[in-house]
Design goal:
218 residues; alpha+beta; two-stranded antiparallel sheet; globular
């Protein structure tokens, strides 16, 4: 793994790892989305390094909170040094708390697929390799499952990506919050080469593609 804390990685090498994936066609809105709801909702997504996915989603208007963590295995194995051995079933994931009156579950998935990660690479994102970096949607109810499965089918049918989407759609059993030093890592480590060369380009892509979705700063 190339982003372990304390790693000294050349900027040029990381730049190669951070080349943004490109969709083969235009990115559509979900044809099927969640019904309007009252009150805060949650979504749990896994798309590689949680430093990066957290950095993207915390900028979305309507998102109240983003927490980095682990999903897919036991509480005992939900520790960074154990997950990093690639011997657990955990995925690095984020728990998103959002207001459905401002952004929908389907719109979060659109950003997940088009900005936050490459959903066509199995158990890897760039040079981060292992099952903990897999693409996964952990649904919390039947409606989220329906929206996720329909959107993946829609994107594949439209040929949006050159390769098939490999994202898992599985029920959420338990989300375990990651260690404190992982929370808001990108915001607190602005000069880290991994953040500069891998995370920041995704944030810039978000701002370029969906400026209307980015939260206005007070």
């Amino acid at each position: 793994m190339f982003r372990t804390l304390g790693d000294r990685i050349s900027v040029s090498f990381l730049t190669v790892a951070s080349i943004a994936f490109a969709a083969a066609g235009p990115f559509p809105d979900p044809a099927i989305d969640a019904k309007p709801a009252i009150g805060k909702q949650t979504a749990v997504l896994a798309g590689g390094c949680f430093w990066c996915t957290e950095a993207v989603f915390e900028l979305i208007d309507g998102v109240d909170d983003v927490v980095s963590g682990y999903t897919g295995d036991t509480k005992e194995t939900a520790k960074y040094d154990i997950v990093s051995t690639k011997r657990t079933k955990h995925a690095e994931s984020i728990l998103i708390t959002f207001d459905p009156a401002k952004t929908s579950y389907g719109q979060l998935l659109k950003i997940f697929f088009s900005v936050a990660h490459d959903p066509t690479t199995l158990n890897r994102q760039g040079y981060d390799v292992g099952p903990q970096y897999r693409s996964a949607i952990f649904y919390t109810n039947d409606e989220q499952k329906r929206v996720a499965e329909a959107y993946i089918k829609q994107l594949n049918a439209a040929g949006v990506f050159s390769n098939p989407i490999v994202t898992e759609v599985v029920p959420l059993e338990k989300f375990y919050t990651a260690e404190g030093y992982h929370q808001d890592y990108a915001g607190r480590n602005r000069s880290n080469p991994y953040i500069v060369n891998v995370s920041d380009p995704k944030v810039e892509k978000l701002k370029k593609l969906y400026p209307g979705c980015v939260r206005k700063r007070k």
